[in-house]
Amino acid sequence: MTSTKASPTALFFFLVLPLAAGILLINLDGWDLWNPDEPRYAQVAREMVETGQYIVPHLNGKPYPDKPPLFFWLVAALSKLYGDATTLAARLPSVIAALGVLVLTYVLGCRVCDPLTALFATIILFTTEQFFTIAISAHLDPLLTLLTTAALLLLYGAYQRFPAGAAYCAAAYACMGLALLTKGPVGLCVPVISFLLFLILKKEWRSIRHLRLGTGLLLAGGILALWLVPACLLGGEEYRTNILFTQTFGRAVDSYSHKGPFYYYLLEFPVDFFPWSIFIPSACIYFWKHRSRCAQQMLFPLAWFLGTFLFFSLISGKRSLYLLPLYSAAALLMARFWADIVHNAAEPLPRLVSIPFKILCGLLIGFGVGGAILFSLDIEVIRPIHHAAGVFYTVSAFLVCGGISGFWLLRRMPRSLVAAGHVAGMTACLFVLIVVLVFPAMNSVKSGRFFCERIKNHVRPHDRLIATFEPELFNYFLHRYPIPVVDEINAYEYLQQSSENLYVLTRGKEPDRLTEKLPHHLHIREQQQIGHRYYFLLTHRPRQSSPTVQ
Question: What global pTM score does this model have?
Fold first, then answer.
């Protein structure tokens, strides 16, 4: 029995975790920080280091109330090591946090289920599209997920020791306090709501008092207050209003950005949990049939998943990456399905696995063939990255080979473990292709660095530069702040009246519309499409050469 438990542990720490770290780090700085979030967060950290204002984060020379500072502190610390807020400095906190989430998921899986299920859960979690994509990006959510997962693990440890377990509860609330410092109230709501739902589903109402909610909330709030009180005093009235109300209640009740309907995540989560979402119907059927046997072990991750899912569904502002704190729970649920199938399924391969596996293999072939056909056509959407057609043909060929090899394995070795290994292995190899080939190939159309390098050829350090939008992308790549922000009409007036070298950054979805409404005395000096928007550098001086269009 001891060797059985040690084997998955050894596999995780000596194989799965090192492989995950290697794939995450293999080419982490192989592409630039991409708009909109990455350059913004890196710029906040840069301004922290350069101005020494660590209490009140700043962006473009003004207080930045959108997010608490813990993530920026980490990036700022690494920026001092690298000499600037580089790509590595901005992304390393996310990678380290993601690896920590894998470790916590394994530990929690061992406590809730068994080491084999825990091992499957870490593999499933890492090979999930959304988890991997966010792990290699400069985002706050991996750090938030690490802290909320740690809080839930500690709460579960306290639950196993009720009515004792005060130390576990205190440590859990300390993690929630740090989560509050990362992304605000969500860092407290996710673990508390999930664990309360777990106790309610177990009908253990009296155990709620053992959570010491009053004391815990004071502890978490006290950790937050160590930063929030001086920040509100230093930041001024507008900063206090934004950080205390607009960025909390405003986003929850009537968000000014990323609004979505209640069912938003019902459509988004299956896409983001790919490829394992293909097996969700099979897992649901399996758990329903074996609900009496699986109920006790699966209740905690189920409550965690449902509590977090409902919480984010009720909030006005929605983005797919917001659900990252529930991915460990989803991976544990899916892992239990696979572990049971591997242990108990009779031969041949059960239909609960074979049917979705065939669908997945068919999708891989379809995506591969469809992608190759798409790149062979002269379509406007594809044109900006047509120079990298060879990269995408390689990925298409890989997908087709993956689908064909899956069908071949299904005939030659109809085993559940083989099917799971094929899905995980194919996804991990695809991730390697993405970070080594795909993202670097897309960098020329996703990064603002190239446009900013051309801007530097025109705009000298002493020239005036203003923008008609929040220019954090240009703050970062031009290493210039503040860039004053004015509305479009005033910007045109400034250009018309100015006798000095003045340049204006503006943007739009279609370049022709800007050309039509642009006053005749103004000129487009440079323009480029970055992502789905066109960005323009305007001046009142006649252009000496045709603008470069990419």
Answer: 0.94
Please give the chain's pLDDT, 550 residues, in tens.
344 445 899 999 999 999 999 999 999 999 999 998 999 999 999 999 999 999 999 999 999 999 999 999 999 999 999 999 999 999 999 999 999 999 999 999 999 999 999 999 999 999 999 999 999 999 999 999 999 999 999 999 999 988 888 999 999 999 999 999 999 999 999 999 999 999 999 999 888 999 999 999 999 999 999 999 999 999 988 898 888 887 776 555 555 566 788 999 999 999 999 999 999 999 999 999 988 887 888 999 999 999 999 999 998 889 999 999 999 999 999 999 999 998 876 566 889 999 999 999 999 999 999 999 988 887 777 777 878 889 999 999 999 999 999 999 999 988 899 999 999 999 999 999 999 999 999 999 999 999 999 999 999 999 999 999 999 999 999 999 999 999 988 888 887 777 788 999 999 877 766 666 677 777 889 999 998 889 999 988 655 544 444 4
Rounded CA-CA distance 420/353 in Å is 9
Domains by residue range for the chain, with CATH? 28-340 (no CATH), 351-446 (no CATH), 449-539 (3.40.190)
**C-alpha–C-alpha distance, residues 209 and 192, integer Å:** 13
**DSSP assignment string, 189-242:** HHHHHHHHHHHHHTT-GGGGGGG-HHHHHHHHHHHHHHHHHHHHHHH-HHHHHI
> Rounded CA gap, 239 and 232, in Å?
7
Positive/negative CA dihedral, 230, 233, 235, 238: positive
Best CA proximity match to 304, nearest among 155, 157, 99? 155
- H/E run at residue 503: strand 502-508
464-467 and 502-508 beta bridge pairing: parallel
Tell me the longest C-alpha to C-alpha distance in the chain.
83
For the chain, the C-alpha Rg in angstroms (whole number) is 26
Query: Rounded CA gap, 441 and 436, in Å?
Result: 9
Identify which of 86, 97, 113 has the alpha carbon closest to the alpha carbon of residue 28.
86
Check: CB of residue 54 under 8 Å from CB of residue 227.
Answer: no
Question: Coil, strand, or helix at residue 96?
Answer: helix
